[in-house]
Amino acid sequence: MAYPLSISAFFPCYNDRGTIATMVLDMKKVLERYTFDYEIIVVDDGSTDGSRELLKELTHTVPQLKLIFHERNRGYGAALQSAFKACAKELVFYTDGDAQYDVREMPLLLGKLTADVDVVNGYKVKRSDPWYRLIIGGFYQVVMRFVFQLPMRDPDCDFRLIRKRALDAIACTSTTGTICIELVKRLNLAGAQFAEVGVSHYFRTYGKSQFFNVPRVARTLWHLIGLWFSLFVVPQKLTQIEH
């Protein structure tokens, strides 16, 4: 395929000081293999571990780095929404700032991007998490695919390449991790065509998951119920993606 001329790559960051700089530098090397027209965006969602100061220093080394700072922790979905608005290139790639995915595998997504594909989503070949997360994660995937009628095997895999025109056709409202399901379903309803490719998944080497505690799980379930009603019950005015 002919690779696109411009790419925005971004990372949501929350207390990821131990991984975010390496991810930015690795991303820069990958993007330079395919285009001169790129940008790297990091949305720091109120980190308190020194991530912000490190990122500011990194701008001296990576001039293509754009920083967005949330003064307080507004949630994963809010971080993604800020980045989506800031991305200016033809393609948008993103993954999380905790380095559980390897940005050097981003070309796997590019390799699946044909002219009729709008979204290329990774799926974890093997999930590297504690046993209880493997069980919960597997159950979550099956239930979400069924309940939301999702066109992919691993909606929980935040390793995505999306055409900007597809993002411009939708408007996500979730400020929590629920945005992963909302994003995929809204793209699906807008007529996006999906492709998938297997990617590696690694153990977290720095920090800890912000999701796996009882209050957050309870809030996520409540938000998912609200999302289902908003998508399947409330009448919607849909914009179709121009192909």
Structural write-up:
The protein has 243 residues and is α/β, with parallel strands linked by helices. It has a single domain (6-232), classed as Alpha-Beta Complex (Spore Coat Polysaccharide Biosynthesis Protein SpsA, Chain A), CATH 3.90.550.10. 38% of the residues lie in helices and 19% in strands. It has helices spanning 17-32, 51-58, 76-86, 106-110, 131-147, 164-168, 179-189, 214-232, and strands spanning 6-13, 37-45, 65-70, 91-95, 119-124, 159-163, 194-199. The protein has a seven-stranded mixed beta sheet, sandwiched between helices. The protein is globular and about 50 Å long. The model has no long low-confidence stretch (mean pLDDT 89). This is Glycosyltransferase 2-like domain-containing protein. InterPro entries: Glyco_trans_2-like, Glycosyltransferase_2, Nucleotide-diphossugar_trans. Residues 8-169 form the Glycosyltransferase 2-like domain. One of its GO terms (biological process) is lipopolysaccharide biosynthetic process.
